[in-house]
Amino acid sequence: MPQQLAIIVLVDVGTALESHTLDGNTYLFDNMKLHGSENQGTGDLVTAIHGSYWRDGSQASEQVLNWLPYSLGSIPPTVPRGYEVERARQSDEQALNELQDLAAKSSVPSADAAAEINRIRKNVGSRIKTTRRTRGRLSGQKILDITGRVVTEEATSAYSYPAPVITDIYGEAVDAKIMYPAEYGSPDMVTDGWYWSASVDTSRPGTYSYTMRIQLHKLAQTNGELRWEPVDLTCSSSLRITSEPRRNAFTKAGIGPLPIPPAPRPGSGA
User: Considering only CA atoms, which of 249, 231, 262 is closest in space to residue 32?
Assistant: First the structure.
């Protein structure tokens, strides 16, 4: 069975949108540091991939890569699936309660009442306009800040950006048929049901570059409506494939057989 390798793509979305580049705003990590990966936590990650071989030295199954994009300084993706909806519902309920209290205090319209209604309206927050280009959790949700509170017109804290979305993986490693990337559907709620994966041919040692096309979203106001507008940027990384076989993490052994305890004898009670 192929070994599952993971690459975390952590993006400083706010700075990347401001500078309109992922250079210096992307931090890549993988789980192969102890096997030779270099430049962990930078935009120049070189992922080490060891060859897979059978005991007789012949080529075995390929390796598998998985890319997981995350946003730096946003609400963690590990919060419950309905977190944004629940926070929006709570703000609506609070506004309704405040309106009921205001109505109970006075039935005569006044300047103070008008100001109070305006304050309540602002505290409700704004919903994102749904568009055909808006995807998944971005549709119709309210804007939250990085602490999970609904953003009001008077809010000064930074709002939480949607997670980056990988839309394509291409470049030398793909053209040379070293890896075969594709987007797959998944029941994993953290990735919104989609993730990018690739099988890697480990029979051809060498260093191969590849490029990820990543879609970010910036908040834009059009005709009085707030929308998440997509912004497409790119960043590059590399794979270094070696003929060195994988090592067993428990015994540190190479391609030899694993130690297997003898089967218990009948009647031994084991």
Answer: 249
Reference 218, options 143, 146, 147; nearest CA is 143
Closest by alpha carbon to 236, among 179, 173, 178, 162? 173
How many Cβ atoms are within 10 Å of 9's Cβ, its own excluded? 23
Strand partners, 42: 28
Among 183, 211, 187, which residue's Cα sits nearest to residue 195? 183
Q: What is the pLDDT of residues 147-180, one digit of tens each?
A: 667 666 544 457 788 889 999 999 999 999 999 9
Q: CA-to-CA distance for 134 and 38, rounded, in angstroms?
A: 36
pLDDT tens for each residue of 60-97: 556 889 999 998 878 777 776 666 666 666 666 666 66
Tokens representing 23?
């250079």
CA distances from 137 to 70, 106, 128, 141, 178 (A): 14, 40, 11, 7, 34
- Amino acid identity of residue 192, one-letter, is D
Domains belonging to the chain, first-starting first, are 4-74+161-245 (2.60.40.420), 78-160 (no CATH)
Backbone φ and ψ of 82, nearest 5°: -95, 20
CA 247 to chain centre: 29
Helical axes 83-105 vs 111-124, angle rounded to 10°: 170
What are the beta bridge partners of residue 226?
A: 221
Sign of the Cα torsion 157, 213, 236, 37 reads positive
Sheet with 165-170, edge to edge strand ranges: 46-51, 225-245, 206-222, 165-170
- Residue 118: which H helix or E strand, with range? helix 111-124
